[in-house]
Amino acid sequence: MTRVINWPALSVSEQQAALARPKLADSAALGEQVRAIINTVRQQGDEALVAYSQQFDGLTANSLRLSVETKLAQLNKLLPERKAAIELAYDNIRKFHAAQLPRDIEVETSAGVMCQLRSRAIAAVGLYIPGGSAPLPSTVLMLGVPAQLAGCERIVLVTPPGKPEAGDIAPEILYAAELCGISEIYTIGGAQAIAALAYGTETIAKVDKIFGPGNRYVTEAKQQVSQDARGAQIDMPAGPSEVLVLADNSANPAFVAADLLSQAEHGPDSQVILVSDSTALIEAVQAEVASQLAQLPRKDIAAAALSHSRYILTADLAQAVAVTNAYAPEHLIVQTAADDELTAQFNSAASIFVGKWTPESAGDYASGTNHVLPTYGYSKTVSSLSLADFYRRFTVQTLTAQGMRNIGPAIVTLAEAESLDAHANAVRLRLAELNNVEG
Amino acid sequence: MTRVINWPALSVSEQQAALARPKLADSAALGEQVRAIINTVRQQGDEALVAYSQQFDGLTANSLRLSVETKLAQLNKLLPERKAAIELAYDNIRKFHAAQLPRDIEVETSAGVMCQLRSRAIAAVGLYIPGGSAPLPSTVLMLGVPAQLAGCERIVLVTPPGKPEAGDIAPEILYAAELCGISEIYTIGGAQAIAALAYGTETIAKVDKIFGPGNRYVTEAKQQVSQDARGAQIDMPAGPSEVLVLADNSANPAFVAADLLSQAEHGPDSQVILVSDSTALIEAVQAEVASQLAQLPRKDIAAAALSHSRYILTADLAQAVAVTNAYAPEHLIVQTAADDELTAQFNSAASIFVGKWTPESAGDYASGTNHVLPTYGYSKTVSSLSLADFYRRFTVQTLTAQGMRNIGPAIVTLAEAESLDAHANAVRLRLAELNNVEG
């Protein structure tokens, strides 16, 4: 059974250690390996892409782009119940993100000085959908819906070729993509796919920004291409997924245990934390975790994650909130008798799940919020993925002659104060012309 | 006289070369030097900070924080005309940014499923104001006004100690900071200041995000701390400043020349481009540049920048727009007989200056728009600095029992499709409890 941490008994440095995240492996070997893959794709294009896909992903075809025939054949296999569930999730995600449409702003700051802030969709975006043991249609929706709503000119989806042969992309993924209006799909994955998106090949035109989760090769490749001005921007920094559940003795221990386990099954490096002011609740949850864990197909993964989970006992709920804010969790579940009051006090979580009927699974799939979230403490500064991430903002200003008369002298004064005489001169010339016209 | 590039006569690769930006020096030596400074500040704190400031910036005092006495003494030296100009700029910048206040969003996506997108100011921000030959009060306003409007809990300003002695921070900088409500000011600069902001020292508490321009040491240090989850986020990637002027034969050559020169005087690496469909306009501008240049105090810097400037002659204005969009300039000035029509077609500039009465200086100082802008082609994806950069967005969801009944079954179906059984189980348990209550 996991050790319970008695928070008030810890020193400040012990408290910091109790909330510390695992140090991410900073592998120079991984960096070099990924750099070599990226360089090879940049130099050899499609040829390298096919070779790497055969080597790493068992690609058997020579075609990188998913054909319409293959897509339709796969879509025919979709179970009606799954089709309906994907549609429900799509609808909710779309409703929530559609409410985020940016508004252009226009302000006349001084008479004759019009300033605008405009938003425009990023032209070409690449969506990375991991392969692996199970398809992830939910991630297609989380990335595809905002790209569709923003109206990006090109939405490119890449995902590793399925088994047993290339093109066996899961029908759930293809249907989610279909709803999002995505028709440009390539069956590639790994660092080579990120390289192709960032720099382009003969078949795949370069994109401007890359979104989506992936394994450590994908994460490293995203990091590398984002450091190159000729590469591509990325959605956000990556890290292991996390949940912090804040519960008091009014919570249902079975629900809390299920919520902890649903984070733990993501991977052995998942971070799972329970914070409570109630010893009874913590003990009941521990018993529930043990009994539910035994039933899970992915119990080995969950058990590995649970081995470094933390149960933190606080003196009261105010201290529990302080612990939560210091940790800055990716997912924060709150199940107490004072949920609304506490929710107003959280200042660093990326996504908050309020009350006994709101498990993390709701946001992972179908509540409508985005499940692409900053983790590893980044949520103190990095935003949860939203429609805004698919836009760029730029400004437009227009001065009339009157506007120049009104603010020109101040500009000259400031430019002189900054010893930028050419800046002043660009205004002096115009003020002189205005005086000539009037004179 | 700068060579004129006849755009239609170029091959595609020659066109790409004509718009290529200078390769940024990727100096391993600089990286190592900055890494050493950062590590020393992390290990030795204030002691290292003082030592570096004495070594690099001629700091003579031991005190890092600007005292109230010194500040008041300096403010007394502010010329009334400059005070008024700073106030005008402050007012306009504030009006434009206040119009950008984020609105929280709440959507009921399915009955009983409430989803919220909330914005909250980043708690602690650090503003870097470069020192050098002239003070930059305008940069204080561009960073300080949105930080003040967002309501960041801590706004920390750092700027290199002035000459001849520490604490001789220009009154213009201090007055701009005063208007923005900034009271925590440290007289430090360079990579050591970035390290102190990102990691904290005994005197300076760590911040969450660092804003502002700087020399190559500062830029490299910002880059390095932003790569560390324990460091700090930064505003945007850096690069040399740029202007592209698109003008036809209706433009005033003296104005165009002055606008090109005001970019050229920023530094020898400034990028200056004129695009026009008129040979006559290009020739007239070249003559004007030569005559105005001779009068400038910073003519050596401007001449160096002009030596790699480009005058591009296009077949028509449509082609001029295409060239502009391909280049994606930081600053885009348009002075033609069809300004409004063209402005609607620009899809990649960071800030657009429309018409003869709108020089770049207007946006640099006092129109109200922000002068912190993505450059080096980043404006295709990176936004101009705006109020949003001082906030983080997060989501909150709350399901009622009815909400769980409505979307729970779809969540179970999707979780099963993704082989995430614990995710499904967190919902199955809740649906079972609801059935029990009803049964």
From TrEMBL, chains A, B:
Substrate binds at residues 241, 263, 266, 331, 364, 418, 423. Binds 1 zinc ion per subunit. Its cofactor is Zn(2+). It comes from the Bacteria. NAD(+) binds at residues 128, 192, 215. GO terms for biological process: L-histidine biosynthetic process. It catalyses: L-histidinol + 2 NAD(+) + H2O = L-histidine + 2 NADH + 3 H(+). GO terms for molecular function: histidinol dehydrogenase activity; NAD binding; zinc ion binding. The active site is at 330 (proton acceptor), 331 (proton acceptor). Catalyzes the sequential NAD-dependent oxidations of L-histidinol to L-histidinaldehyde and then to L-histidine. This is Histidinol dehydrogenase. The gene is hisD.
